[in-house]
Specification:
Helix content is 37%, strand content 13%. The chain has helices at 2-14, 48-51, 56-61; strands spanning 24-27, 32-35.
């Protein structure tokens, strides 16, 4: 999810469209800050191969 969101942001900037709209605003104690909320992913031995399927460097660590 993080890589996909990063690619989305980069492509938007490269196309000259600026930053994509943030998902929500979160108050940091001083101001409201726009953020992209991504669901957390818990990686275990059981799902590591699926979680790292698109990351050859991390897949190599599983060997």
């Amino acid at each position: 999810m993080l890589v996909a969101k990063t690619i989305e942001i980069i492509e938007s900037l490269q196309a000259g469209n600026g930053m994509p709209a943030a998902d929500v605003d979160v108050n940091n104690g001083k101001i409201d800050v726009p953020v992209y909320e991504l669901p957390p992913v818990v990686v275990t031995k059981g799902n590591a191969k699926a979680a790292f399927a698109n990351d050859p460097g991390r897949l190599a660590l599983l060997k």
